[in-house]
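Render this sequence as a predicted structure.
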Amino acid sequence: MTMIGLIFAGLAALLHVYIFYMESVAWTSERVRATFGTTETEAAATRELAFNQGFYNLFLAIVTGVGIVEYLSGHTSVGAALVFAGAGSMLAAALVLFLSSRGKRGAAVKQGALPLLGVVILMIGLLG
């Protein structure tokens, strides 16, 4: 069961690397603007904020990835703690988005589903 939780956490980390790319690298591109529902002017005005936010997503992905590697290397306590910190933060951010922006609830569910599954399944695996 823990392996399934780690797989979902890893998928969440990969998703957050992609979000990093969109926010920090491709923010003003037509495709990313369409994804986030921003105009060219809005994207230009928020570029610095998005750049910074993208790195938060990258760092959460890195913490989760390091946790998975540590867990699989036999450092199960440290690894699990890092996975819970990284994926749990992803989940918390999705919850904040869900509660604070009615129009972005679909995005929040997409952003939060994988870390939720990772955290819950990993917890069940560790307790079982």
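Summary. The longest helix spans residues 47-72. DSSP finds six helices and no strands in the chain.
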